[in-house]
Specification:
homodimer, 37% helix, 3 domains, Double Stranded RNA Binding Domain, 18 strands, alpha/beta
Chain lengths: 532, 532
C-alpha cells in the first residue's frame, strides 16, 4: 500500500519574492496551467489584495484539476474577521483553498504582531473557521516553526494544534529563514506528529544551508504528507525547496517510490525536463546546466576516467535512467575524445559512419587539433555537427564571404557629443553573384551580424526567423593579445536552439566564425540546397 | 573537546571534469594558492601524466601549508608496481600525498577492470605500500562505494579494510554517481565505521539528487572526519559537494561547531564570500546570486511580508550573521548599509571622508547608478578608487582622448591568402599638444591598447612598465546587442596588480574605458602630476 504525498507549488507566491523575478498576469496564467497539467496538487497563485496583478489573477479560478490556492495572513489581532480587509480579499478570491501564514515563534508574536500568545491562537482559530465557513479548504503555514519550536515548543505546538482543531486540512511547518538542518527537521516533525497526524502536516523549506531538498525529504520520512516548493527552486535569498528535484527523487528512488505516490504520473514525469526548461524560458533565463535530473549536464560525462566504461554500460554510471525525467545521456567530446565517444555523438546527430571509415579518423584528428587550439565542442553541438558533415562531404557550399570590414569610431558629433559608431561591410558571393551589404550596430559584432544576415539572396527566407539569443566570450589566456573563444546561441521560430563556436586571436574573426556556423547550420537543418 | 574535520579540495581534479571548465597552468597555481591561504587541509591538484597541464603543475610543490595531493589510479592488475607508468607518474610527483581511486563495486571490478576481486584487493594493498615507501601520505578513494556496498557489502568493506591495513591515512567513501540518499549514507558509514575507525574515513559526494551537502554532513554525523568537495560545488554532471557551503555550516551551526573544528579560522571564514567570488572570476562566470551563505542574495530581502520586521530586528530573520562569512545584509529600503560599506572601502584605499560629507552621498549615488548599469566594482578596485578620487576632486586631468577609430578587415592579401588585420588610431590632447598615434594588433582591443600607450608624451616613462595580464569579457544579457562588461587586469614592474572595468553596449567602448582607467590609475599611483 502506497501513501499519497501532496505537492504544493508556491512558485507564483513565495517564488515571486525572488530578486529579479516579476511575473506578469500572463506569466502567472501560463505557469498555473503548466503546473496543473503536470499533476501538481495545489497551485498557490499569490496574495489577492497585495498588488493589482495578484488581485486580477484571482478573479477567476485558473486551474482545472489542481486546487487553486490564495495566500494571506491570519486575521489581525484586535479586529474582527469581518473588519479585516486583507483577510476579506483572500476569502473573496475565486479559489479552492486558502493558505494563511501564522506566527509560530513567540518572539515574533511579541515583536512583529505586538499581541499576546493567546490572541495569536485566537486569530488562527477564527481565520480557519471563517475560511471554512466560506467553503474553502484551509492551510495554515506556521512561520518560523522550527526556530519557534526551539525557543518555545509549547506555543509552536499550540499553533499547530489550534489550526488542526479548528479544521485546517493542512498544518505546514515552515523553516522560514532556512537555517534548520535535516536531522533537526526530522526530530521536530516527529515531535509534532505525536499531536497532529502526519497526514495533516506539510513542510516548507528554504535553501539557506543548501539543504532544502534534504530537509523536505527528511520531513517526509518523519511523517509529513505535503511538500511545498517552487519550480527550479526559485525564491527569496537562496530559494525555496526545488520541487523539480523532489518530484524526481520521490518517483525514482525505491526508498520513496515503494512507499509513496504523488499526482505526477510516470508519463508526466517524462515531461519534467521540459517543464523545468519551459519555466526558465518564461523567466527568460538560461537553464542551470548542472541542475539535478533536468540539467543539460545532469547525465553528461566529460572524457576522463569514466568515459570508456560509461560507453560499455551507461546504467551503472547513472543513478537513474535519464529518459525517465525526459533528459538524455551526453558523452562530451573533448580533449581526450575517443572514437566511441565521437560515434555516439554522431549517432545523436543522425549520422551513421562505419567505425573503420577513414573519414572518421580524419574527423577525430580535426576535433583534437581544434580543441588544442581552444575550440570546445562540448558546448557547441551545432558546430560539431557541421564539422562532421563537412568532413563527410554533405554540407553544400551555399555562399562565400569574400571579405568583410568592421569599423568602430568614437568622435564628437556635430552637436559636440561624444558618440561611438560601429559599422560593417560584408562582401558575399552566391553562385556568380557578388553582393555587398553594409549595416550599423551597437558594437562591432552586432554590426557584422546585421550586415551578414541583411541579404543572403535566395537563402534569406530560410534565415529570417533566426535570432541570436546569447553571445559569450572567453579569453583563453591573459592579455589583450590572447586567444578568444566566442560561443553564440541561436534560436529559430520553431524554438530550436543551437550553439556555435569560433576561436581566434581576433575577437572579430572568432565571432564571425560562430556567426557563419549559426547561419549555415540553420540552412542545413532547413534542408536548403545550394544555388548552382 | 572538539574533533578535527579535515577539508579536502578536489576543485583542480574532479572539478576539472566540469563541462566548460578548462584550467590553465596559471589558473591552477592561483587557485592552489588561494585554497592554501584559506586553510584547506588537502589540495588535490590533478592527475600527473594524464595531460601536459597536470604534469607541469606537479613539477613542483604548489602549497605552503596544505598537503599538496596528486590523484591517480591504483596499480593495474597483471603488472607490477614498477611496470605501471601511470602509477609512476603519480609517485614521482612533487607532492605530500597521493590519492588513488580504487574500485569498490564488484560489478565494476569485473566489467571495467576485468580482474578478480582478489586481484583488486592486491592492487590496493601494493599501491598503498608503494606510495608509502616513497614517503607519501596515502588516500584511497573507494569509487562507487555506496552502490558497491548495496550490491556486495563484503567486497566493498574488504577494499576499505585492505587500504586501512596497508597504511592508508584516509579511506574515502565515494558516492560516484551521486544517487545515494542521506539516510543511506548515514547507515552505510556507520556500518563501515565498525571496521575502520571514523578518523580514517572520508566522504566524497556528488549532487545528483541535490543533496551533496546533506550527504557530506550526514557522513560526518555518522563518523567520517574528512570531507572532499570543490569550490562552489563545481564538478561533473550536477557537481561535487560544495565546500563553501559545508565550511560555513560546520563553523556556524552549533550542532557541528560545538563538536568539530576545521583548518579555516573564524578570521578566514570572513573571507569565504571573497574566495567564492574570486574563484568565479577565474572561471570568468557570474557568481550564483542565490548560493547559500555567499550569494549576493543570500541575505537579501525583497520588499514583502518580512521586510519591515527585518528592519526591526534583522537577526531573527537571518539564520547566521552575514558578516561571519564576509557577506552582507541587503535590505532594499535602507541606504545606511551602503554608506558604511562605502566608507570602509574608502578607508581601505587610504581615503578618509566624513560621514556627513555631501560628496559621499554623490559618490554612493554614482556607484549605485553604475552598478545598476552593470558595473561591478567588487571585481574592479582600481576603477572604484579612481571614481572615488574623481568625486573628491583629486585626480589630475592628465590628457584627453579626443577620438579613436578601430578597423578590422578580413580580405585576401597579394599572395591570395585570407588575412585579418586590425588597426587603431587614437587622437590624444596633452596640455596644448595634439598627438595622433596609430598601431596594429591581433584584434581590435589589442590595437587600441597599443595605439593608446604608444606615445603619451611626458607620461610615457611612467607607464612603460605597465603590462596587461588579463582581459575578461562578460555579456550581461543575451544577444550580440547586449551590454558588455570588460575587466582588465594590469601589472607594473613592481608587481602591483590592479583591475579596471568598463561597461557599454559596445565592446570596444567598454574595453576603452577599462584601458583608460588602467593607465590613469598607474599615473595616480606613481604620483605623476598633470602637464599644465
Amino acid at each position: 500500500m502506497t501513501e499519497r504525498i501532496h505537492l504544493f507549488d508556491t512558485t507564483l507566491r513565495d517564488g515571486a519574492q525572488t530578486s529579479g523575478v516579476d511575473f506578469t498576469l500572463d506569466d502567472k496564467i501560463r505557469i498555473a496551467r503548466m503546473l496543473d497539467d503536470f499533476g501538481i496538487d495545489y497551485v498557490e497563485g499569490g496574495y489577492p489584495g497585495a498588488n493589482p496583478t495578484d488581485t486580477a489573477f484571482f478573479e477567476e479560478k485558473r486551474t482545472r484539476r489542481a486546487r487553486f490556492t490564495a495566500f494571506g495572513m491570519t486575521k489581525r489581532a484586535g479586529v474582527s474577521v469581518s473588519n479585516d480587509p486583507g483577510l476579506a480579499a483572500v476569502l473573496d478570491a475565486a479559489v479552492d483553498a486558502c493558505c494563511f501564514v501564522a506566527k509560530a515563534w513567540d518572539y515574533h508574536v511579541h515583536v512583529a504582531l505586538g499581541c499576546t500568545l493567546e490572541e495569536n491562537l485566537e486569530s488562527v482559530r477564527l481565520t480557519v473557521e471563517a475560511a471554512r465557513a466560506r467553503g474553502h479548504e484551509v492551510l495554515i503555514d506556521c512561520e518560523h516553526f522550527f526556530d519557534g519550536f526551539k525557543g518555545n515548543p509549547e506555543h509552536a505546538l499550540a499553533v499547530a494544534r489550534t489550526a488542526h482543531a479548528a479544521g485546517a486540512r493542512w498544518i505546514v511547518l515552515c523553516d522560514t529563514n532556512g537555517g534548520t538542518l535535516p536531522h533537526e527537521i526530522e526530530a521536530i516533525v516527529a515531535a509534532v506528529a505525536r499531536d497532529v497526524p502526519g497526514d495533516r502536516l506539510g513542510i516548507h523549506a528554504h535553501d539557506d544551508t543548501g539543504q532544502a531538498v534534504a530537509n523536505s525529504l527528511a520531513a517526509v520520512r518523519a511523517g509529513v504528507r505535503q511538500i511545498q516548493g517552487t519550480l527550479n527552486g526559485i525564491g527569496e535569498r537562496c530559494g525555496n525547496a526545488n520541487l523539480v528535484t523532489i518530484i524526481a527523487t520521490l518517483a525514482l528512488k525505491p526508498e520513496f517510490s515503494d512507499r509513496f505516490v504523488t499526482g505526477v504520473t510516470p508519463e508526466k514525469l517524462g515531461e519534467l525536463t521540459h517543464v523545468s526548461r519551459a519555466f526558465d524560458d518564461i523567466l527568460n533565463r538560461s537553464p542551470n546546466r548542472h541542475a539535478p535530473y533536468v540539467g543539460a549536464n545532469a547525465f553528461a560525462t566529460k572524457a576522463g576516467i569514466h568515459a570508456s566504461a560509461l560507453v560499455k554500460d551507461p546504467r551503472t554510471y547513472e543513478h537513474v535512467p535519464p529518459e525517465t525525467v525526459g533528459n538524455r545521456r551526453r558523452v562530451l567530446v573533448s580533449d581526450q575524445a575517443g572514437k566511441s565517444n565521437l560515434l555516439s555523438e554522431l549517432a545523436r546527430f543522425g549520422i551513421t559512419v562505419d567505425r573503420a571509415d577513414p573519414r572518421l579518423d580524419r574527423l577525430l584528428g580535426e576535433v583534437k587539433d581544434r580543441e588544442a587550439r581552444g575550440f570546445s565542442y562540448e558546448a557547441a553541438d551545432a558546430s560539431l555537427e557541421l564539422l562532421a558533415r563537412r568532413t563527410l562531404g554533405t554540407v553544400p557550399r551555399y555562399f562565400e564571404v569574400q571579405s568583410f570590414r568592421v569599423m568602430v569610431e568614437r568622435r564628437f558629433n556635430e552637436l559636440g557629443e561624444l558618440v561611438t559608431q560601429s559599422e560593417a561591410t560584408v562582401k558575399v558571393k552566391i553562385g556568380d553573384q557578388l553582393m555587398l551589404s553594409a549595416a550599423e550596430g551597437n558594437g562591432p559584432v552586432n554590426a557584422l551580424d546585421a550586415a551578414l544576415r541583411k541579404d543572403l539572396g535566395p537563402y534569406q527566407s530560410a534565415i529570417d526567423d533566426l535570432v541570436l539569443v546569447d553571445f559569450k566570450v572567453r579569453i583563453l589566456n591573459g592579455g589583450t593579445g590572447a586567444t578568444t573563444r566566442v560561443l553564440i546561441e541561436s534560436r529559430d521560430g520553431a524554438k530550436n536552439h543551437w550553439t556555435t563556436i569560433g576561436v581566434s586571436e581576433n575577437i572579430i574573426d572568432a565571432s564571425f566564425q560562430a556567426l557563419m556556423d549559426a547561419v549555415v547550420y540553420k540552412l542545413v537543418k532547413s534542408g536548403v540546397t545550394a544555388v548552382a
